[in-house]
From TrEMBL:
GO terms assigned for molecular function: glucose 1-dehydrogenase [NAD(P)+] activity
Alphabetic keyword roster: Oxidoreductase
Coiled-coil region: none
Enzyme class: oxidoreductase
Name of the protein in its database record: Glucose 1-dehydrogenase
PANTHER family tied to this protein: DEHYDROGENASES, SHORT CHAIN, ESTRADIOL 17-BETA-DEHYDROGENASE 8-RELATED
Similarity annotation: Belongs to the short-chain dehydrogenases/reductases (SDR) family.
EC number: 1.1.1.47
């Protein structure tokens, strides 16, 4: 089978940005999509856009730091659509941008809790559901170029995204023989509400950021969605454990 037609996908952080673009792309390719996010209004908006385009999606209000919520989201995929083929663990926050010594415990715990523990809790529920189906599956975790590079004033974020790369590699090795592939997508700077927020706070910072990107522009959420769609499909059947950068060349200069 090629593409995502007939598959069941769970996508977290799909009320906005990269997650919404990916949910839309998956539905366009014929997947049934469970949209999981803490933001109910945005989640309803995502599923209504998908329904208007003739796609199939269900929203489940989910805080990825809550293990019961994560279990319910996986259960919804199984109950509503009969199983789980692809999971995109994408919910994340940037947290406060302050120097190392000024980072509060609260910020550390929030950022690591959502970006790293959230991915761990999700995989721990998703993998048994995929094993149960017997048909394998594909998990894609959202890391970042901050998963392979250091950035000032973002230490909890950078640590959490490095952790996502490590979790991805470990699970990939552990479940490869079961037909479950686990990869990470590492976006560069993508034009989503997350980046727009910091651009509004400091317009010069966006100009400086763009100047540092060889492609000379921000990425579009749809450009991450197309990579996740490929990783989710059998076209990437022999790709596992990989951190895939989608960054306009940022990380290779
Ligand atoms: P975004 O702010 O547009 O979307 C993030 C989504 O995550 C939101 O819908 C939000 O409600 C949801 N979310 C936050 N906390 C949650 C929680 N506890 N439980 C469930 N959902 C929660 O941002 P985005 O740019 O689309 O970011 C998506 C992912 O991409 C994040 O993991 C982010 O770190 C990563 N990323 C983004 C960029 C970028 O430049 N935009 C670059 C690298 C990595």
């Amino acid at each position: 089978m090629r593409g995502l037609d007939g598959t069941v996908a769970l996508i977290s952080g799909a009320s906005s940005g990269i997650g919404r673009a990916t949910a839309t792309r998956f539905a366009e390719e014929g997947a049934s999509v469970v949209v999981a996010d803490i933001d109910a209004e945005g989640g309803e908006e995502t599923i209504s856009r998908i329904a208007n385009d003739g796609g199939e999606a269900t929203f489940v209000e989910t805080d990825v730091t809550d293990q019961d919520d994560v279990a319910s989201a996986v259960e919804t995929a199984v109950d509503a659509y009969g199983g789980l083929d692809v999971a995109f663990n994408n919910a994340g926050i940037e947290g406060e941008q302050v120097g190392f010594g000024d980072q509060s415990n609260d910020n550390w715990e929030r950022v690591v809790g959502i970006n790293l523990s959230g991915v761990f809790y999700a995989m721990r529920e998703e993998i048994p559901a995929m094993l149960e189906s017997g048909g394998g599956g594909s998990i894609v975790n959202t890391a970042s170029i901050a998963g392979i590079l250091g950035f000032p004033n973002l230490s909890p974020y950078v640590a959490s995204k490095h952790g996502v790369v490590g979790l991805t590699r470990s699970a990939a090795v552990e479940f490869a023989a079961d037909g479950i592939r686990v990869n990470a997508v590492l976006p560069g700077v993508i034009d989503t509400p997350m980046v727009q927020r910091s651009g509004e706070a400091d317009p010069e910072s966006t100009e400086q950021t763009v100047a540092a990107i060889p492609a000379d522009r921000l990425g579009e959420p749809e450009e991450i969605a197309s990579t996740v769609a490929w990783l989710g499909s059998d076209d990437a059947a022999y790709v596992t454990g990989q951190p895939i950068t989608v960054d306009g060349g940022y990380s290779v200069q």
